[in-house]
């Protein structure tokens, strides 16, 4: 067994009496028991979960973001994500042809836009004039939310007060004004009791659980009953429903009229595959992978099935690796396959054909256009030379000088490097600019505000976008800012990033700052990684190392090395265990006794982090054991008692730590970072979990005085370098590792890097014209 830094195998410091015997030569638990972060323990159930609570936890708290592929649940077992492209299926079947024509027209507009971008490659970019076609549709939806016409709850749990209708930001002299898209019609997402009853009747007739009536109506709309009768496979759009369940439902309703190659079935399967991929972080999938997955589900002609899905508007098709102005190499607009190349002609470069949902295509197009707008609309303005000279470090000075001349900057570094964007914010505010920093979590906001020395200099990103934090909007409806620094940038998903960039007016400087080694966003996309890979803007790499034994350990993990470090103050302690039961026992001892006694860190400031929610030592089991020791009680408030540590998930991808204070008819009362929060009774089951133990995805962007990372034997398959890097970096003063995976840990650090996510943003950024100053 490889000894971890700070201890030899089988020993702990004298201040931690929980010393365990060396683990047995072979683990009692095997990788077959591992559960990946976000894998739903009820995935193999015979019927969908009644209330979808498990699925909400999977999608919202800890989706299988492609950074931990080794522990991913088998294909077909993961629940489908929240339907997003189901609007195409909301109309009656008779309207399918017109919808398909509309989708093809949208794709033609997209190709025309790409051709126009290529033609303008050598010319200047008119700031704010690049939104058209499908990207303009997203802009219309965003502005509908900003104007209050569309519910803000579509993006966040608590909609902010609607700002004034946004007017186009003024264009620089000599450039055409930015087009103002038509406002989207308001959407009523409250399902009527009559619609739910109608869906319940259809579900009962098809042998599906009645508990799916409300989720199905919420997903498919008021006409859900009629839609399900005409196309039973639309049930796949409901979170948690699997293909075999939808097949059984369809057979019960349609009888012999349906089969495995039914066009309705194959189109729904394509949408389900793309939604499932989005839960793993992809915004698109290789068409060949989609065809292979369809073949595994008894589709006899996957090629025709994919073509049908494209024609029906379920998916959009894109190609990479060839001239984007040429007709689609895989699917022509008339649905015919391209003719064979003429004999004797030079073979073209391999073309990757991608399929994607429209929501992510819209977001990536809008984000690429918005970033290009910011890059090309920046003006030098104030003199930053004196501020750079007064910077606290060379890296901070470099960041200040770079931000002075660029509209978009990518800054990367570890935990100590967060002082550099803080110095930039302070310098900009000293020059009279409206500068602000946005962090992923309330803890990150607090640490940034302390580093800047101004409480109003930092907000959470969610609070900024919802309008509950920050400076508000200017007279044009844009955020009233001159400089915005986004920390924890790897946590940005593509949809959130698109909304953020659209809210920035021309001339605003945007700095994306983060640690490339941590786990990626909970939502689809890899915005920060794509911006770095595209090299479309200046990049500043911090030269400030993380201090102390924990910093040294984490830095080594970041380059694939698990090395021993000197830890004279027991900053890093290893607790070997033989099995999952012992891991739970040792974890409770560490949190309740050893760490408080040895380091004067109370149990409430120690965070337990483990690989998954299920399993013999997952978050559920650990939270139950820790509650019994630290805050025993009957759980009279829906399983919670006053004083319980919890994690509140107000929206997918957001995990907010809190403490239960009370409960009444209004709901469960929490205190989250000093802010009172009331969770309605109907949302407690899906939006609140005990929070003594978290997954690494949930813990990303936050730090605690002490962290206990639990690695039982059944977690080996879920480990990867980004997971270990993220988990080990959550402790500020102390890190305990409850270690039962033997050689799986050094193997994961050295040989299991982050799984690549399939996205289109990098290619879109590489195609946009950039200023000469960009490197």
Automatic annotation (TrEMBL):
Signal peptide: none annotated. Residues 196-283 form the ATP-dependent RecD2 DNA helicase-like helix-hairpin-helix domain. Coiled coil: none annotated. Residues 106-123 have a biased composition (Basic and acidic residues). Transmembrane segments: none annotated. InterPro entries: P-loop_NTPase, RecD2-like_HHH. Residues 13-84, 91-105 have a biased composition (Low complexity). Residues 1-128, 156-193, 319-348 are annotated as: Disordered. Residues 165-180 have a biased composition (Pro residues). Residues 323-339 have a biased composition (Acidic residues). It comes from the Bacteria. This is AAA family ATPase. It comes from Streptomyces cyaneofuscatus.
């Amino acid at each position: 067994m490889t000894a971890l830094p700070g201890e030899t195998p089988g020993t702990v410091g004298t201040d931690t009496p929980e010393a365990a015997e060396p683990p047995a030569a072979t683990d009692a638990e095997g990788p077959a028991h591992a559960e990946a972060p976000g894998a739903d323990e009820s995935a193999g159930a015979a019927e969908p979960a009644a209330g979808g609570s498990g699925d909400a936890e999977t999608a919202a708290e800890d989706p299988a973001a492609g950074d931990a592929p080794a522990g991913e649940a088998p294909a077909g077992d993961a629940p489908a994500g929240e339907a997003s492209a189901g609007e195409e299926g909301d109309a009656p079947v008779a309207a399918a042809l017109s919808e398909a024509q509309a989708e093809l027209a949208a794709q033609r507009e997209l190709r025309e836009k790409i051709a126009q971008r290529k033609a303008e490659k050598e010319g200047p970019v008119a700031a704010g004039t690049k939104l058209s076609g499908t990207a303009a549709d997203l802009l219309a939806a965003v502005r509908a939310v900003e104007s209050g016409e569309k519910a803000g709850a579509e993006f966040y749990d608590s909609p902010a007060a609607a700002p004034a209708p946004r007017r186009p930001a003024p264009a620089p002299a000599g450039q055409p004004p930015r087009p103002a898209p038509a406002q989207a019609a308001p959407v009523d997402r409250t399902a009527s009791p009559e619609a739910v009853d109608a869906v319940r009747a259809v579900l009962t007739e098809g042998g599906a659980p009645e508990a799916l009536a409300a989720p199905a109506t919420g997903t498919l709309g008021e006409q859900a009953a009629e839609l399900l009768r005409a196309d039973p496979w639309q049930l796949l759009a409901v979170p948690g429903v699997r293909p075999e369940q939808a097949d059984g439902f369809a057979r019960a309703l349609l009888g012999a009229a349906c089969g495995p190659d039914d066009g309705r079935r194959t189109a729904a399967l394509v949408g389900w595959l793309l939604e499932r991929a989005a839960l793993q972080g992809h915004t698109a999938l290789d068409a060949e992978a989609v065809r292979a997955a369809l073949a595994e589900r008894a589709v006899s002609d996957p090629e025709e099935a994919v073509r049908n899905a494209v024609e029906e508007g379920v998916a959009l098709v894109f190609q990479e690796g060839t001239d984007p102005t040429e007709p689609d190499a895989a699917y022509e607009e008339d649905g015919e396959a391209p003719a064979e190349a003429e004999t004797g002609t030079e073979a073209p470069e391999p073309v990757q054909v991608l399929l994607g949902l429209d929501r992510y295509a819209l977001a990536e197009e809008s984000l690429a256009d918005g970033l290009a707008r910011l890059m090309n609309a920046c003006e030098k303005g104030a003199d930053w030379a004196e501020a750079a000279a007064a910077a606290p470090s060379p890296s901070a000075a470099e960041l200040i000088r770079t931000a002075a001349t660029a509209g978009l900057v990518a800054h990367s570094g570890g935990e100590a490097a967060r002082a550099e964007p803080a110095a930039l914010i302070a310098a900009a505010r000293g020059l009279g600019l409206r500068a602000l920093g946005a962090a992923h979590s309330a803890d990150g906001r607090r640490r940034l505000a302390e580093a800047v020395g101004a409480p109003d200099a930092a907000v959470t990103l969610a609070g900024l976008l919802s309008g509950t934090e920050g400076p508000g909007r200017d007279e044009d409806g844009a955020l009233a800012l001159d400089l915005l620094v986004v920390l924890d940038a790897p946590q940005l998903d593509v949809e959130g990033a698109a909304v953020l960039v659209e809210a920035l007016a021309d001339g605003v400087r945007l700095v994306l700052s983060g640690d490339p080694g941590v786990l990626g966003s909970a939502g689809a996309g890899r915005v920060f990684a794509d911006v770095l890979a595209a090299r479309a803007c200046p990049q500043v790499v911090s030269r400030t190392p993380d201090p102390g034994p924990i910093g040294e350990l984490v830095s080594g993990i970041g380059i694939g090395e698990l090395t021993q470090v000197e830890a004279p103050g027991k900053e890093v302690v290893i607790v070997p265990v033989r099995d999952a039961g012992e891991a739970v026992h040792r974890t409770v001892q560490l949190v309740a006794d050893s760490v408080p006694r040895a380091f004067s860190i109370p149990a409430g400031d120690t965070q337990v982090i483990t690989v998954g929610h299920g399993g013999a030592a997952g978050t559920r089991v650990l939270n139950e054991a820790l509650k019994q020791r630290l805050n025993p009680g009957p759980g009279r408030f829906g399983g919670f008692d006053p004083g319980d540590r919890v994690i509140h998930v107000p929206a997918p991808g957001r995990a907010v730590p809190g403490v239960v204070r009370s409960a009444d008819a209004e709901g469960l009362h929490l205190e989250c970072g000093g802010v009172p929060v009331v969770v309605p009774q109907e949302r407690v089951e899906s939006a609140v979990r005990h929070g003594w133990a978290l997954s690494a995805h949930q813990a990303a962007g936050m730090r605690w005085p002490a962290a206990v990372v639990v690695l039982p034997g059944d977690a080996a398959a879920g480990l990867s370098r980004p997971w270990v890097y993220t988990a080990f970096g959550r402790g500020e003063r102390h890190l305990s590792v409850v270690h039962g995976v033997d050689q799986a840990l050094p193997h994961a650090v050295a040989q299991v890097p982050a799984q690549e996510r399939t996205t289109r943003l990098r290619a879109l950024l590489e195609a946009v014209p950039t200023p000469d100053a960009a490197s």
